Amino acid sequence: MEIESNEYPVLVEMEEEEIPVHTPAVVKEPPKIHRLDESVVNRIAAGEVIQRPVSAVKELVENSLDACSASINVVVKDGGLKLIQVSDDGHGIRYEDLPILCERHTTSKLSTFEDLQGIKSMGFRGEALASMTYVGHVTVTTITKGQLHGYRVSYRDGMMEHEPKPCAAVKGTQIMIENLFYNMTARRKTLQNSADDYPKIVDLLSRFAIHHINVSFSCRKHGAARSDVHSVVTSSRLDAIRSVYGVSVARDLMKIEASDNDPSSSVFEMTGFISNSNYVSKKITMVLFINDRLVECGALKRAIEIVYAATLPKASKPFVYMSTVLPLEHVDANVHPTKREVQIFLAVKYYNCSCLLANDIGLLIHLISCITSVVKCGF
Ligand SMILES: Nc1ncnc2c1ncn2[C@@H]1O[C@H](COP(=O)(O)OP(=O)(O)OP(=O)(O)O)[C@@H](O)[C@H]1O
Ligand SMILES: [Mg+2]
């Protein structure tokens, strides 16, 4: 049969879309599996722990908190890519520990796996400092109580670059990271192109400052005379929020408190401050601490936004600070490479549920219902 001329264009189109017929793949030998060089393993692991400058600041500040510091000062240059310097007045580091300080899996906070169940310190893996030495140049200056002088030593790839040098030092520890991601071209480029990390660092320090009110915090850009975060030790949480976030935020906050119903087996306590209907902001501020750990919970944040959206007449976003205390054995801190999330296990009788075990969802529902009732009654 002859094909009519007007059918040709259709045929041409079909030819273009035709799925190519693959010739059978040539059967290859399986690729050989080999053991990665330790330096490669370490650098890959370091890239996960220290994802960007703000993750390094978080690790350093948490180390300072673990060292019982009363004052923590942060200086940042070029969004943290050139320099991050964290100085504290904590207990310092022993001279004899300096050689292994930046090796992977060296820590003063954990000995057995079981210790992890009741861990109170922010750190436990012995990985943060090591990671920094694989992706940056680290210098530590430290002095312990009763010493006449301190020591300074630099590290690369987990190792000391030289013997610790005696030096003048003030109480505590100063850790400096220079040239972060100097050996990770892609990461450095992405960070240089993206908005600089300094606002994220200021935000992080602000969060720490309103929770740890027995510690004074400061954060400034290198060379700047003024600090962008400056908090003093206080006994009032509201004063801390006022000094960090400003009078306009603090005056529109309501206190919230919640605990489980059964005081004899009390496992859950939550205190916080949440904004009232006069508070106006385009973006939500959600500061959540669980057992003094700064964590994130996207589900809770979204739920709170919904609670507020239904209650507030205008599309204003809330300010929420919440500190929740649970028994240590109910919180698993070892679920995220940057310790940004924790897993919670709780018996749900506290939430009037019928099943045997609840996880984060149970707590979430409880927190949201607390917030909902305060928002509804408080306005
Ligand atoms: N600012 C500091 N003051 C006193 N000791 C410190 C300080 N920073 C680090 N250290 C000591 O160095 C050790 C190693 O710190 P690093 O942050 O690498 O590990 P970690 O805190 O034990 O665990 P993680 O990797 O989870 O943070 C700590 O256990 C602590 O003993
Ligand atoms: Mg640490």
Let me know the CATH homologous superfamily of the largest domain. Histidine kinase-like ATPase, C-terminal domain
List the secondary-structure elements in sequence, H or E: HHHEEHEEEEEHHEEHHEEEEHEEEEEH
CATH architecture of the largest domain: 2-Layer Sandwich
Q: Which structural category do the helix and sheet elements fall into?
A: alpha+beta
Helix segment tally = 10
Number of separate structural domains: 2
> Which percent band covers the strand fraction?
15-25%
Description:
With 379 residues, this protein is an alpha+beta fold. The protein folds into two domains: 38-230, Histidine kinase-like ATPase, C-terminal domain (Heat Shock Protein 90, 2-Layer Sandwich); 252-378, Ribosomal Protein S5, domain 2 (2-Layer Sandwich). The chain is built from ten helices and 18 strands. It has helices spanning 8-17, 38-49, 53-66, 128-135, 185-193, 198-211, 237-245, 247-250, 298-311, 360-378, and strands at residues 71-77, 83-88, 137-143, 150-156, 159-160, 165-167, 172-178, 216-221, 229-230, 253-259, 269-275, 285-290, 293-295, 319-325, 331-332, 343-344, 346-347, 357-358. The strands form four sheets. Strands 1, 2, 3, 4, 5, 6, 7, 8 and 9 form a nine-stranded mixed beta sheet that branches. A five-stranded mixed beta sheet has the order 10-11-14-12-13. A hairpin with a 2-residue loop joins β4 (150-156) and β5. α2 (38-49) packs across α4, α3 packs parallel to α6 and α9 packs parallel to α10. The protein is globular and about 60 Å long. Mean pLDDT is 84; it is low at 1-15 and 347-360. The site of magnesium ion (MG) has 5 residues, from α3. One of its GO terms (biological process) is DNA repair. It is found in: Nucleus. It holds the Pfam family DNA_mis_repair. Belongs to the DNA mismatch repair MutL/HexB family. Keywords: DNA damage, DNA repair, Nucleus.
